[in-house]
Task: structure prediction
Amino acid sequence: MFANELLRTCCCLRRSAKNNFPLSTPESLISLDSGHIGQEVVVLKNGKRLCGSGGAILNQALLQSKSYFEVKIQQTGHWSIGLCTLNADLNKTRGGLDKFSWCLNAENLVMNDGSVIFDLNEMYSSQNENGTTSNGINEDTEKLLPVENNSINDNHDVIPPTQSTSNQRSILPQEGDIIGITYDHIELNFYLNGKNLNVPSLIKLSNSQQPNNGEYNSNEIYPCLFVDDGAILDLIVDNFNYPIPSGYDKIMVEQTLL
Result:
């Protein structure tokens, strides 16, 4: 068991020497912000990989009308993926525990301010006689790629097996999965391997959530990632694994970053 933990740590830390390459394209300018991370967080792969313990936000707010990005669950553990303001506590190991963050986590819960907004465990475990879940989604649309016998390449990336009709995984997120996130300044939505999880979460900032020092305004919402217990998350802001939902686009680089 000790050897497994040591291997997980090495997978995360051995790549830290590659963290200083120059960024050249507009998409590569978007990364996890080293100035807004938890004290025990490690950011690797030019700001695209998060491990350690705590949270991090992107260096780019979601200012466009409709945004989309993806996150790969590179290694399991406890993770949270979603959106937050600059007031979110990034030293926490879970997102959604304060009123400044809205996250889907490894326990299959969508949370904000410590309250559960959606529980995927309940939503997808209750099925009726006509083959639909409790929220009316047909089971056939929920069957996704298998994850058994995942392999790991030299870069320590999880490589899922090819699609199989006889061995299909559940709707709940697992290691190797891709979580897609959309935001239109009203709703936050999550996608699992290209399938909409149908858990729209309203994001409304009250005056009490906005600081008086003018650090940000009501539309400055940032993507955020949290990890703990060996979890590793990879940020994807371009060359997506799945088609972007209609009407949305990848995160646009703010002019000041160019």
